[in-house]
Amino acid sequence: xxxxxxxxxKLMPDVDRPEAWLLTVDGAPQSYVDLRDPTYLEFxxxxxxxxxxxxxAEDARPLDVLHLGGGALTLPRYVAAxxxxxxxxxxxxxxxxxxxxxxxxxxxxxxxxxVEAADARRFLDASPAESADAVVADVYGxxxxxxxxxxxxxxxxxxxVLRPHGLYIANLADSAPFPFVGxxxxxxxxxxxYMCLIAEPSVLRGRRFGNTVLVGAHQPLPLAELSRRTAxxxxxxxxxxxxxLARLTEGxxxxxxxxxxxxxxxxxxxxxxx
Length: 274
Hints:
This protein is an alpha/beta fold. The chain is built from nine helices and twelve strands. The chain has an eight-stranded mixed beta sheet with strand order 7-6-5-8-9-11-10-12, sandwiched between helices. A four-stranded antiparallel beta sheet has the order 1-2-3-4, covered by helices on one side. Helix 2 links the parallel strand 5 (about 65-70) and strand 6.
């Protein structure tokens, strides 16, 4: 247990997997890492992001990826394992958390992963144009996505950094009637002509608060294959695009820096462990 910038962090071993660890911050699950098998992804939303990354290019082709939010570096480890030679930069504001992870969950020397102590928005603004095949946003300040990472200016910055074939992938949490996710869809629709949303049916039907994965691109997305992969997971998800997204964005306006607010507070117990 250690005090970090965002609260109290704790690493808990998984008794069923000898070199696997769960990282929690203030009791909420934050990351899960299997050092022996980095392709094993315990969290459902992480598997959905991984499906998108798997379809970002031909199998095993290295990628240049920017990760906004680091945690225990679950997804960077996954990309390094599935696409050797990839170059990945990670922005993590919590230096104490990064130090804990490096100390107890070290990266392989040839991982190609570089972690920087930086605010995600400033990190993105300072990154070269068309330098990334994917931008993965999984940034939570406590339980919120920070307000400055929800705006049209931020969306344009992500668009600038991506190559023409690149993908923007974000982990967002909300519940029906999806005021936050709907506004994010409206915001990113200003810069990406192709988008989809991935979530469990129970979340999409408004039965509970949960994670959704937003994907934006300048080229058509592989929706059929993505749907097949997410539907075959242990906790199946649905891929929404076209008319269903239009319904979610109905009446929503793009978020600007002057009127931005963080993501909603999860209901008590939504993301905790026993």
